[in-house]
Specification:
The complex is a heterodimer of chains A (135) and B (350).
Chain A: H1 3-7, H2 10-15, E1 17-21, E2 27-28, E3 46-50, E4 54-63, E5 76-83, E6 88-93, E7 106-116, E8 123-131
Antiparallel strand pairs in A: 1-2, 1-3, 4-5, 4-7, 5-6, 7-8
Chain B: E1 4-11, H1 22-37, E2 46-50, H2 54-57, H3 63-73, E3 80-83, H4 89-102, E4 108-115, H5 122-130, H6 145-160, H7 164-178, H8 192-196, E5 200-202, E6 205-206, E7 216-224, H9 225-228, E8 236-237, H10 260-273, E9 282-283, H11 290-299, H12 308-313, E10 324-325, H13 337-349
Parallel strand pairs in B: 2-3, 2-4, 9-10
Antiparallel strand pairs in B: 1-7, 1-8, 4-7, 5-6
Classes of the chains: A mainly beta (135), B alpha/beta (350).
């Protein structure tokens, strides 16, 4: 797969850059050119917004049958997380035992290697989530 | 809009068909349907094929022309159309063919769905299935196709108390139905315990909660209703149809326990047919995973939201239950699905 395919998404994969609709205030991630709620009224009014990286688990699964790229990681936990800004995303949960994951659990984003293109290809990075530090 | 009728159907067997190529499958289903409809090839106006991923599974695109060609239709230079829409390809092809006839443009269209999945290894096939999900924002992080359905199942358990036994009862029922269908991939019954004890694929879904990889094809001949009597005494009329879509990524959808696209498509189809969910006696719904059938019977309003699991255990959807669901044993994957559903319903009416 070509390098630009990963490179062009770096803003959102590394820094959780999304958009906020200048019309209704709804937050989207990844960035959208058009707000799903406002349609044309939002065109040209989508503002860049960096998510704070904190949220709660809405649902999760433990993957046992993994794609070749993830073979060495299985079993691993995938989750849908609702960010505190209200938008949801799909991510891997790490630094937690599968049996300890619960719906509602607080999590925060962290920067990790996502995969690589074969033995000598480009390594690509992005977010994974882990249990939130207690405060 | 003109009325449209089904006047013939055909399908191949389904399974790991090592000795059959994509074109073999498409031709067999198509020719069987043409023969069943007793039409001459000169009467065919167009060929529509639902196919999800021949490009990835067998490195072959342009499959509609290919199948028409090897069905002996090349010299007619027919319009051939290949339609892709994830697991809904076959169903969308049917609706598009219906529209083409209803509009008056064509009188007779052969429409089918076909997929050849076993020319690649299991891992690669699973990756190809995942390509219907959002590659950049789901798959790249490690979400598999089964994993996405597993997350819907987990949430359904959380919100409605659905259990693994509820999910498993879908597989038990559909295998039982499959044991009565000579074209089914698996023709033997399975027990609840074997489903519960099958190896985990994506928790809470085990191997028997997941549809197998499968090769096969199905085809239907559609005809303008005013001409249908010429070919058959028992044309089956298209009373209503509905198609809908949604946010592609699961995480963007309104509710993880509802397929809004199914809700809307079902309402559109029933409204056109002037029917209510309670009028329906038999249904073929998508069941690529056990949770999928539970969501489908809820979203089509056959049972109350959240009650799909208990209803399945109670036999509401069993053969000759209040509404018989997936009487054939469940749907073959991808391109074949929608077309096969119509084939099975049509055959039940015979």
């Amino acid at each position: 797969m070509a390098i630009p395919r990963f490179w062009r998404e770096i803003g959102s994969r590394y820094n959780l850059i999304g958009t906020k609709c200048g019309n209704c205030g709804k937050v989207d991630f990844p960035p959208r050119a058009v707000c799903p709620g406002c349609g044309r009224k939002s065109i040209g009014r989508m503002e860049r917004l960096r998510l704070a990286g904190k949220g709660s688990v809405v649902t999760y699964t433990v993957i046992h049958d993994a794609p070749a790229q993830f073979e060495m990681q299985k079993p691993y936990v995938m989750a849908i997380v609702e960010m505190d800004e209200g938008v949801r995303l799909t991510c891997q949960l790490i630094d937690v035992r599968p049996e300890d994951v619960t719906i509602g659990m607080r999590v925060q984003s962290t920067f990790r290697k996502l995969g690589q293109e074969g033995e000598a290809g480009v390594i690509h990075y992005g977010y994974k989530f882990r249990p939130a530090a207690r405060t | 809009m003109r009325d449209v009728a089904v006047i013939g159907v055909g399908e191949t067997e389904f399974g790991e068909l090592w000795d059959r190529s994509f074109r073999d499958l498409g031709i067999e289903a198509g020719l069987k349907a043409i023969q069943d409809a007793k039409i001459a090839s000169e009467e065919i106006d167009a060929v529509y094929i639902g196919n999800m991923s021949a490009g990835k599974f067998i490195d072959q695109e342009h499959v509609s022309a290919l199948v028409a060609d090897y069905s002996g239709l090349a010299d007619m230079h027919l319009p051939t159309v290949r339609i892709e829409g994830g697991g809904a390809c076959g169903a969308i092809a049917l609706l598009q063919a219906r529209l083409a006839i209803a509009s008056g443009m064509y009188d007779i269209v052969v429409v089918g769905g076909a997929e050849k999945m076993t020319d690649v290894g299991d891992v690669q096939a699973a990756e190809i299935l995942s390509s219907t999900a959002d590659q950049e924002w789901e798959s790249v992080f490690g979400a598999t196709f089964a994993g996405l359905y597993a997350m819907m199942a987990r949430r359904h358990m959380h919100e409605y108390g659905t259990t693994r036994e509820h999910l498993a009862s879908v597989a038990v029922k559909n295998h039982k139905n499959g044991s009565l269908n000579p074209e089914a991939q698996f023709q033997k019954e399975i027990t609840l315990e074997s489903v519960l004890n099958s190896p985990m694929v994506a928790e809470p879904l085990g191997l028997f909660d997941c549809a197998p990889l499968s090769d096969g094809a199905a085809a239907v001949v559609l005809c303008a209703a005013d001409r249908a009597r010429k070919f058959t005494d028992t044309p089956v009329l298209f009373k209503g149809s509905g198609q809908a879509s949604d946010f592609l990524a699961l995480h963007d959808r309104r509710d993880l326990c509802t397929m809004d696209a199914t809700v809307v498509a079902g309402k559109r189809a029933l409204a056109e047919a002037k029917l209510e969910p309670k009028d329906i006696q038999v249904a073929e719904v998508h069941d690529n995973f056990t949770i999928t059938e539970i969501l489908a019977i809820e979203d089509l309003r056959f049972v109350e939201k959240g009650k799909g699991g208990p209803a399945t255990v109670e036999g509401v959807t069993a053969l000759n239950g209040k509404i018989s669901v997936n009487t054939s044993g469940g749907l073959p994957p991808l391109g074949g699905t929608g077309a096969t559903a119509v084939v099975h319903i049509f055959e039940r009416g015979d």
